[in-house]
Amino acid sequence: MTSSRGGRPQRIGITGLGMAVPSKVLTNADLEKMVETTDEWIRTRTGIRERRVAEPGTTTSDLALKAAREALEQARLDPKKLELLIVATTTPDMLFPSTSCLVQQRLGASSAVCFDLSAACSGSVFAIITAQQYLLSGRYRNALVVGAEVLSSFIDWTDRSTCVLFGDGAGAAVLEPVKRGGILATDMGADGSAAELLYMPGGGSKYPPSHQSVDQRLHFLRMNGTEIFKLAVRRMADSAKRVMKDAKLKAEDVECFIPHQANTRIIEAVAKRADLPLEKVYMNLQRYGNTSAASNLIALYEAVRDGVIKRDDHVVMVAFGAGLTWGSVLLQW
Ligand code: ACO
Description:
Elements: E1 12-20, E2 25-27, H1 28-32, H2 39-46, E3 50-52, H3 60-74, E4 84-88, H4 99-107, E5 113-117, H5 123-136, E6 143-149, H6 160-163, E7 169-177, E8 182-190, E9 198-199, H7 211-215, E10 222-223, H8 225-246, E11 256-259, H9 264-273, H10 285-288, H11 295-305, E12 314-321, E13 325-332
Parallel strand pairs: 4-5, 4-6, 11-12
Antiparallel strand pairs: 1-7, 2-3, 6-7, 8-13, 9-10, 12-13
Helix pairs in contact: 3-4, 8-9
Bound molecules: acetyl coenzyme *A.
C-alpha cells in the first residue's frame, strides 16, 4: 500500500497489545553452573532472577509473529487490512531481507508496507513514534509495531559481565487513530559519539564473517557496563521529564512509568533523578532480564493485563539503548 490518504487524525493510540517469550527459563542458579557468578551477585547488581532463552532454531520472526497475532486480535484488525508493519530489532533473522517482511508473509498482511528499525533497546519506543508520525500525516490508517529479539544468539555465554543481563522475547502494539486518550507527547535522541560503549563488531561490512572474526569472538555483544549505566540514568530521566513538560503534566499526574527493563538500579536512579515515585514505576525485569527492543512493550503488555494500567491512566514509556539512543512516549490509556 503506497498511496497517500487525505484526512489527518488528531490523536494516535494503542488499540491492541501482544507478547511472546520462549518457554525455556534460564535461572541465576543455571548461570552459576555456566560462568563464575552467583545468584546473589546478579540479584543485587541487576534485580534479574531469571530470563527466557529461545531453543536453537527459534528465530526473532517466530517470537515477533506470535506477539503480532495477539496484538492484531486484541485490536480486531484483520492482518489483510494492516497498512504499516515495523519490526524493531537488533537481532534480525538475517541481515536482509528485513524481519518485518518475514513477519508480513507469515501473518498474511499482504497490504502492509514493512521495514525494520534499528535503535537497540530504544527500538519499541522509536517504532511507536515512527508509526505515530505516519498515522498523524494521514499516510496510513493503522500500524503494527513489534519489538523482538533473540539476543541469546549474540551473547558470549562465557562472558559473565554480559550473559547474565539479557533475555529473549517479543512485544507488539497496534496503533490507530483514537477519539480519546492516545499519545500526548514524544521525545527521541541519539549520540553516536558513544557508539563503542555497546556494540557487536562482527558480521557487517566492517568485520565480515571470517574464521578470524569467529576466533576473535567479534560476533558477540560487547559492553562497557559502568559507562552505559551512568548515561542511561541521565538520558532516561531527562527524556521522561521532557515529555511530561511537553504534555504539561507533573510526575504526580502520571499513574504508571514503564522504563526500559535493563536493571533495577538504573531504574531506581532514573526515578530519583526525575522525581518519580518508585511505587508508580513498573518492573518485570526480574522475570525476563533485558529483552532490548521488546522490553518496553512486554512491560506495557503485562502492566495492562494485570490491571496496573487502567483506562484513562497517564503512562510514560522511556527507553535507552546502544547507539546511543533514547526516547519517551507519554500516552493516555
Ligand atoms: N558475577 C560476578 N561478578 C561479576 C559479574 C557476574 N555476573 N559480572 C561482573 N562481575 C565482576 C566484575 O568483573 C568486577 O570485578 P572486579 O572488580 O574484580 O573487576 C565486579 O564484578 C564489579 O563490576 P562492575 O562492573 O563495577 O559492577 P557494577 O556494579 O557496575 O555492575 C553491571 C555491573 C550490572 C553490568 C552494571 O554496570 C550495569 O547494569 N550496567 C548497565 C548495563 C546494561 O544494562 N546494559 C544493557 C544495555 S543498555 C541498557 O539497556 C540500558
